[in-house]
Amino acid sequence: MLSLLRQSPLSARIGLGIVLLNCLVAIFAPLIAPYAETAVVGNAWETVSDRFYLGTDHIGRDLFTRMVYGARNTMALAFVTTALSFSFGSLLGFVAAVKGGWIDQILSRIIDVIMSFPTLIFALMILSVLGSSLPVLIFTIALLDSTRVYRLSRAVAMDIEVMEFVEVARLRGEGLWWIIRHEILPNAMPPLTAEFGLRFCFVFLFIASLSFLGLGIQPPLADWGGMVRENAGAITFGIFTPLVPAGAIAFLTVGVNMVVDWFLHLSSGLHE
Known about the structure:
The protein contains eleven helices and no strands. The chain is mostly helical. It has one domain: MetI-like fold (Orthogonal Bundle).
């Protein structure tokens, strides 16, 4: 692993550094943040000082503290949602590719129906009816994102499924789950892993967008998208406060994409 990192390009190292920094901040948020997540400790939109490293927000909470806890809330929610969507979407995609026939047709048509709705409008409709609790938010985004994962995993599995070593496994009498677990999944991991990084970025940005619209992570929990919305009025007075969480969103997105680009460069070929 160390030799691989030494051979990695500068962009990949920068991306890894950005991702690692954000992960450390999220993990050790209670130790890093100088105040409680929801504590009002000053006046609204105070400037940067020794007491407030990034100033305060629209009701006087420490912006640095909110940014630290926002990293934990937003990244954790995006990771859990992406993992759930990949587990569900890739499993259905593999089953559709290996079984084929009417199972493939039924699953693919259901996915087509879901994908025919604009993603943001569909999410807004569900969240408006069922509310914006964390379980509903995770399920809604995971459902919408799993359709993209299904398409990719099915396409990759269909290419692998016609390989000779899969035919040999069938002739030996191996069942569906054995073929998926031992033949399809190991060879599909490189593109799926790269796609996981990209989908994490999309989910991360989608959560931020929903929070900006007021249907994402709900107050008083800190969330970078919600922080942009809450402090948007500061721009009128020439205060940079909403640019801090917006910059953090862009910073992490660029870092993850750098790592994904490197991984895509490394991953190629099948492993029998």
